[in-house]
From TrEMBL:
One of its GO terms (molecular function) is protein-N-terminal amino-acid acetyltransferase activity. PANTHER family: N-ALPHA-ACETYLTRANSFERASE 20. This is N-acetyltransferase domain-containing protein. Gene3D superfamilies: 3.40.630.30.
Length: 130
C-alpha cells in the first residue's frame, strides 16, 4: 500500500468521529480503496485538512447494475459550501461514464433529516423503507 493511501485511510477513520457518519472497520475501507478507488473522493483544504469524503461502489446484475453511495460526510466547519453536492456529482459522473451504471442508489437513516433533504434536493426519491 502506498504512503498516501495510508494517510487517506487514516483521514477517513478520523473523520468518522462525527456521530452522524457511518463507521466501518479498516478492512471495509481497504476493500473499497482497492476495488473502487475512482468512486472514492476526499476534499482537502489548502493546508491538507480534510473537509469531507464520499465512498461508493458499483454493484448489481444486468439492468440493476448501478453506482451506490456507501458513505458521505463533510466536517461540521465546512458544511453548506456545496462540498457534498460536488462529491455526489462526481460519484454520479463516474458511475454513469466509467461504470455505465443505470442509476445511483443509497441508504439513509430516517433520522438523518439534513441528509434526506439534501438527497431529495439532488433528485433522489424514496424507493423503499427497510
Ligand atoms: C449531509 C451532509 C453530507 C451535507 O454536506 P454539505 O456539504 O453541507 O451539503 P451541501 O452544502 O452540498 O448542500 C447541498 C444541499 O443539501 C441541503 N442541505 C445541506 N445541509 C442542510 C441543512 N443543514 N439544512 C437543510 N438543508 C441542508 C440543501 O438543500 C443544500 O443545498 P443549498 O445549500 O443550495 O440549499 C453533511 O451535513 C454531513 O456530513 N452530515 C453528517 C453525515 C451524514 O449525515 N451523511 C449522510 C449519511 S447518508
Amino acid at each position: 500500500m502506498l504512503k498516501d493511501e495510508y494517510a487517506y485511510l487514516l483521514c477517513l477513520v478520523l473523520r468518522n468521529l462525527d456521530i452522524w457518519t457511518e463507521t466501518y472497520n479498516i478492512g471495509f475501507y481497504l476493500h473499497y480503496l482497492s476495488r473502487w478507488l475512482d468512486l472514492c473522493c476526499v476534499q482537502e483544504a489548502p493546508r491538507g485538512r480534510m473537509m469531507g469524503y464520499v465512498i461508493g461502489k458499483a454493484e448489481g446484475q444486468a439492468v440493476e447494475w448501478h453506482g451506490h453511495v456507501t458513505a458521505i460526510t463533510v466536517a461540521a466547519e465546512y458544511r453548506r459550501l456545496s462540498l457534498a453536492w460536488r462529491m455526489m456529482n462526481l460519484l454520479e459522473l463516474v458511475s454513469n461514464d466509467i461504470y455505465r451504471g443505470f442509476f445511483v442508489d443509497l441508504f439513509v437513516r430516517c433520522n438523518k433529516l439534513v441528509a434526506i433533504e439534501m438527497y431529495e434536493g439532488m433528485g433522489y426519491s424514496l424507493y423503499r423503507r427497510v
